[in-house]
Design goal:
single chain; about 190 residues; alpha/beta; Rossmann fold; 8 helices; globular; binds adenosine monophosphate
Length: about 190
């Protein structure tokens, strides 16, 4: 089983972001869960991939050919899927993953997160989605969602299309509770 992680191609200005990316990688690998991600070696993306690889779990990068030719592609992955463009990339990342996690990042991360939430809202998938809210990074987003609910643009029940947690352990436990039983195959998401 693999989880897809969306996160910054930059490190952010606080050391805690890098620490959280390492912790997320460790936590996934510690539970025998592999990583699917954007295939870059840069920023929090590279940190997360390295943390999973260092613990012997599989990491699959999915990258468009236009980006793979540049130095950004991580050269040490279990598998690097080079796809034709951004749309096939996202479809492939979704296909390979049992759940989605967003960590701090910028426009790329936001776009990926919004898309999987939207697809879930429309019923195109039912995979769990979680936000790792490091240092309250996503608080303004959560406030925006609450405002959209109050103002009648998001249905109240759709507020629960994603989970939020401050630590990888807590987030994986919450996502695990939403996974279909057959996906778990002996993996105990409460154990670290
Ligand atoms: P951002 O949050 O704007 O830094 O973008 C990060 C997200 O967009 C990641 O989850 C990736 O899937 C994708 N992405 C952005 N930049 C790169 C890159 N240099 N290499 C691979 N993927 C990237």
């Amino acid at each position: 089983m693999k989880f897809c992680v969306f996160c910054g191609s930059n490190f952010g200005v606080r050391e805690e972001y890098r620490q959280a990316a390492v912790a997320m990688g460790k936590c996934l690998a510690g539970k025998g869960i592999g990583l699917v991600y954007g295939g870059g070696s840069v920023g929090l993306m590279g940190v997360t991939a390295d943390a999973v690889l260092a613990r012997g779990e599989e990491v699959v990068g999915v990258i468009p050919e236009s980006m793979a030719t540049r130095e950004v592609a991580h050269q040490g992955l279990t598998e690097l899927d080079v796809v034709r463009g951004m749309h096939p990339r996202k479809a492939r990342m979704a296909e390979l993953s049992a759940a989605f996690i967003a960590m701090p990042g910028g426009f790329g991360t936001f776009e990926e997160l919004f898309e999987v939430i939207t697809w879930s809202q429309l019923g195109f998938h039912a995979k769990p989605i979680g936000l790792l809210n490091v240092l309250g990074y996503f608080d303004p987003f959560l406030e925006l969602v609450d405002q959209a609910v109050r103002e009648g643009f998001i249905r109240p029940e759709n507020r629960s299309l994603f989970e939020v947690a401050g630590t990888p352990e807590e987030l994986l436990e919450k996502l695990g509770q939403r996974l279909p039983v057959e996906e778990l195959r002996g993996i105990d998401l409460k154990e670290i």
